[in-house]
C-alpha cells in the first residue's frame, strides 16, 4: 500500500470513528425490503446481472441489487463515484437504509434514483450529526476533529469533480446531456418554504443554481451544458452530506460551488435568492481558495476623459476588485488625474468586512472625473506603499483611458519593489499602450487592453487568475466572514477545483463546505478556554501564510500573457521558446496527501453549552436511547456571506 493510501486510510478511519452507528432501524421507520415497482421495471434494475445502476453525468455504476435494503448498513462504503476516493466523505462510512416516505425520522428523497418515490434515512439507523455524537460519548474531542471532518468533505467533493470532468465533457461533446439539469434559482425555488431563521425561502432537500441573466447570455452553450452536468453531479454529494450532518432547519449553513467559466454558483440548500449582479468569481470565498494572501493597490484614472459612462465603469471595476479581497489581504485605492487626486488611506489597510464596506462607500463618494493625466506620481506612491509591505504577494492594478500628458519616465518603475507585479489596464481605444505595456513587462505582470469597456469590471477582478498559478492544488483554505442578510458568522473550508486534463493550470471553480453544516460557531464560542476564538486566530494566521512562490515566471507567465492577446506578450517571452511543456500545477492532484489537521494546535472542546439558543426554540428531536444520547440542539442564526 502506498504512503498516501495509508495516510488516507488513517484519516478515513478517524472520521468514521467520530460517529457511532446502530445496526437496526428504529421502530416506525423500518428499512424497505424491496425497491419501488417503477424502479424495478426501469433499465436501472438488472436482476440477471445483480445490478442496481446509479447513473451520474451519463456514467453508470453497478451497485448490489440489494443496495439500501433490508438492514442498516454502510451501503455506500467503497462505491464509485464518491466513496472510492482517498478522501471519502463521512457519509460513506455511515449506516442508512431506504425507508417509506411516511417515515417521521427525516427521510430524504433519493438523489441517486430521483422520480421513483424512493427515500432514505441515516437517522433511523442511528447515524447522526457528528457534533451531537461527540457530546454523547466519553472521548475528548477537539477543534482538529472538526477540521478533519470539514476538510474531508471539501476534498472528497474536489476529487470527485476533478476526476469526472472528462466524463462530463464527453457528454457535452456527444450532445448527451439530457440527464443533466440546470435548476436556476431565478426561475423559482422548487419546494422552498419561508424560514424565519434564514430570513429567506429555502429547501434543504434540494440544490439549485444562482446564475444571473447577463452571465448566462455571455456563456457558450457548451459552458452551460458543462455547468448543468457539474451541478447535477455535485448535487448528490451535497445532499448526502446534508442528510448526514444537517440536523436542524434553524441552523443556517451552506455548501456551494462557484464556476470559473460562468460565474454561477451551485448551492445547498436551494433558496429563492436571485440577483442580476451576482458573480461567484467576485466573492471573497472564491478568491480565498484561488489566490492566497496578497497586498493590492488599486490605481484609477479619474481624469476628464473618464467622464460619463467610463467613470461609472471605473466605480464598478473598483468595487469588483474589492469583492475579491479577503480577511488576510491588505489594500489601498489611489485616484489620479494630473496629480494624486485622492487616496483612501496613507497606508495599506487590512480588508476586513467593515473596511471593505467603507472602501466601497469611499469609491462612490470620490470617484469623479476631472483634470489631465499624469502617470508617475500615483505609481510612485503605490510603490512606496508596497515597499513597506511584508506580504507574500504584492500587486498594483493600474487603470487608465488616456496618455500621460507629461511623458512617462521609465525610471519611475524603480520605485516599485522588485517583488511587486503590475497589472495594467488600457480602457478604450484612446489609451496609450506603450507605458502600460512597459509597466507590466518590467515587473512580471500582465497588460490588458480593454476595448470593450463594459467588461472592465470582469477583466480587472480576474487578476487573481495570475495567483492561481502559485496555488497549492491540494489545500483547503479557511475563510471567516458575515452574511449580508443577517450579519451572522460563517466559517468555511474552501478548495480550488482544477482542470487536471489540461497542460496549463486552469481553474474550474471553487468548492466550499461550511463548518456550520455540523455545528454553529456561536455555540463553539460557549466552550471553555476561548477554544473557538483561539481556533479562528490560528486559521487566520494559516490563511496568511505565504506560498512557496510569490510570483509567476517562465512559460506559465508567457501562457497567461498570450491568452490575453498578442499585445500582452512581452519581448522577454520570446527567449522561452514554444513552451509546449506541461505547466499545470494540478496535473498530479490525484496524489494529494490526506488533509493534515494537525497543522493546527489541538484545542480541546469542553464545557460547551449543549442548550445554546440563538434563533427560536426549535429543539432537535434526539434519536432513540440505543444511541445513548441525552442531548437537544436548539436552532441557530447563521446565514453565509456567499449571497452578496
Automatic annotation (TrEMBL):
<feature type="signal peptide">
    <location>
        <begin position="1"/>
        <end position="24"/>
    </location>
</feature>
<feature type="domain" description="VWFA">
    <location>
        <begin position="295"/>
        <end position="463"/>
    </location>
</feature>
<dbReference type="InterPro" id="IPR051173">
    <property type="entry name" value="Ca_channel_alpha-2/delta"/>
</dbReference>
<protein>
    <submittedName>
        <fullName>Inter-alpha-trypsin inhibitor heavy chain H2</fullName>
    </submittedName>
</protein>
<dbReference type="Pfam" id="PF00092">
    <property type="entry name" value="VWA"/>
</dbReference>
<keyword id="KW-0732">Signal</keyword>
<dbReference type="GO" id="GO:0005245">
    <property type="term" value="F:voltage-gated calcium channel activity"/>
</dbReference>
<dbReference type="InterPro" id="IPR036465">
    <property type="entry name" value="vWFA_dom_sf"/>
</dbReference>
<dbReference type="InterPro" id="IPR002035">
    <property type="entry name" value="VWF_A"/>
</dbReference>
<dbReference type="GO" id="GO:0005891">
    <property type="term" value="C:voltage-gated calcium channel complex"/>
</dbReference>
Amino acid at each position: 500500500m502506498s504512503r498516501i493510501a495509508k495516510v488516507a486510510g488513517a484519516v478515513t478511519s478517524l472520521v468514521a470513528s467520530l460517529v457511532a452507528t446502530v445496526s437496526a432501524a428504529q421502530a416506525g421507520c423500518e428499512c424497505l425490503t424491496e425497491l419501488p415497482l417503477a424502479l424495478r421495471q426501469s433499465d436501472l434494475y438488472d436482476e440477471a446481472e445483480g445490478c442496481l445502476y446509479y447513473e451520474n453525468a451519463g456514467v453508470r455504476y453497478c451497485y448490489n441489487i440489494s443496495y439500501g435494503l433490508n438492514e442498516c448498513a454502510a451501503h455506500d462504503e467503497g462505491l464509485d463515484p464518491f466513496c472510492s476516493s482517498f478522501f471519502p466523505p463521512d457519509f460513506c462510512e455511515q449506516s442508512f437504509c431506504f425507508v417509506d416516505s411516511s417515515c417521521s425520522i427525516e427521510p430524504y428523497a433519493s438523489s441517486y434514483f430521483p422520480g421513483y418515490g424512493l427515500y432514505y434515512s441515516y437517522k433511523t439507523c442511528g447515524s447522526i450529526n457528528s457534533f451531537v455524537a461527540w457530546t454523547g460519548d466519553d472521548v475528548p474531542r477537539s477543534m482538529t476533529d472538526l477540521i478533519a471532518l470539514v476538510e474531508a468533505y471539501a476534498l472528497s467533493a474536489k476529487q470527485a469533480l476533478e476526476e469526472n470532468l472528462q466524463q462530463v465533457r464527453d457528454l457535452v461533446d456527444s450532445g448527451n446531456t439530457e440527464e443533466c439539469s440546470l435548476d436556476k434559482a431565478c426561475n423559482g425555488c422548487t419546494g422552498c418554504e419561508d424560514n424565519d431563521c434564514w430570513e429567506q425561502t429555502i429547501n434543504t432537500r434540494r440544490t439549485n443554481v444562482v446564475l444571473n441573466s447577463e452571465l448566462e447570455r455571455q456563456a457558450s452553450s457548451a459552458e452551460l451544458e458543462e455547468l448543468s452536468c457539474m451541478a447535477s453531479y455535485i448535487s448528490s454529494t451535497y445532499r448526502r452530506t446534508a442528510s448526514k450532518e444537517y440536523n436542524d432547519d434553524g441552523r443556517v449553513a451552506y455548501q456551494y460551488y462557484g464556476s470559473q467559466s460562468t460565474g454561477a454558483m451551485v448551492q445547498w440548500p436551494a433558496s429563492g435568492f436571485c440577483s442580476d449582479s451576482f458573480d461567484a468569481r467576485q466573492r471573497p470565498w472564491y478568491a480565498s481558495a484561488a489566490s492566497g494572501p496578497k497586498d493590492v493597490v488599486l490605481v484609477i484614472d479619474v481624469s476628464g476623459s473618464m467622464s460619463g459612462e467610463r467613470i461609472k465603469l471605473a466605480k464598478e471595476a473598483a468595487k469588483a476588485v474589492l469583492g475579491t479581497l479577503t480577511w488576510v489581504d491588505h489594500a489601498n485605492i489611489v485616484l489620479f488625474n494630473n496629480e494624486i487626486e485622492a487616496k483612501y488611506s496613507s497606508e495599506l489597510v487590512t480588508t476586513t468586512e467593515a473596511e471593505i464596506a467603507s472602501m466601497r462607500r469611499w469609491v462612490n463618494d470620490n470617484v469623479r472625473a476631472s483634470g489631465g493625466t499624469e502617470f508617475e506620481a500615483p505609481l510612485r506612491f503605490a510603490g512606496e506603499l508596497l515597499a513597506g509591505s511584508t506580504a507574500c504577494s504584492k500587486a498594483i492594478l493600474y487603470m487608465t483611458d488616456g496618455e500621460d500628458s507629461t511623458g512617462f519616465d521609465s525610471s519611475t518603475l524603480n520605485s516599485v519593489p522588485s517583488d511587486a507585479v503590475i497589472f495594467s489596464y488600457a480602457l478604450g481605444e484612446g489609451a496609450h499602450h506603450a507605458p502600460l505595456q512597459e509597466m507590466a513587462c518590467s515587473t512580471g505582470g500582465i497588460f490588458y487592453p480593454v476595448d470593450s469597456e463594459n467588461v472592465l469590471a470582469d477583466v480587472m477582478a480576474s487578476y487573481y487568475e495570475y495567483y492561481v498559478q502559485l496555488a497549492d492544488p491540494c489545500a483547503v483554505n479557511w475563510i471567516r466572514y458575515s452574511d449580508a442578510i443577517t450579519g451572522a458568522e460563517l466559517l468555511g473550508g474552501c478548495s480550488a477545483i482544477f482542470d487536471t486534463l489540461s497542460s496549463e493550470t486552469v481553474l474550474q471553480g471553487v468548492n466550499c463546505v461550511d463548518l456550520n453544516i455540523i455545528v454553529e460557531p456561536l455555540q463553539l464560542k460557549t466552550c471553555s478556554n476561548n477554544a473557538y476564538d483561539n481556533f479562528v486566530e490560528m486559521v487566520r494566521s494559516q490563511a496568511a501564510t505565504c506560498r512557496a512562490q510569490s510570483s509567476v515566471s517562465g512559460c506559465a507567465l508567457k501562457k497567461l500573457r498570450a491568452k490575453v492577446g498578442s499585445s500582452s506578450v512581452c519581448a522577454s517571452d520570446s527567449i522561452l521558446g514554444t513552451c509546449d511543456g506541461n505547466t499545470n500545477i494540478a496535473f498530479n492532484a490525484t496524489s494529494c496527501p490526506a488533509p493534515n489537521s494537525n497543522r493546527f494546535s489541538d484545542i480541546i472542546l469542553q464545557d460547551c453549552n449543549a442548550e445554546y439558543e440563538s434563533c427560536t426554540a426549535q429543539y432537535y428531536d434526539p434519536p432513540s436511547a440505543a444511541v445513548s444520547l441525552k442531548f437537544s440542539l436548539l436552532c441557530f442564526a447563521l446565514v453565509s456571506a456567499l449571497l452578496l
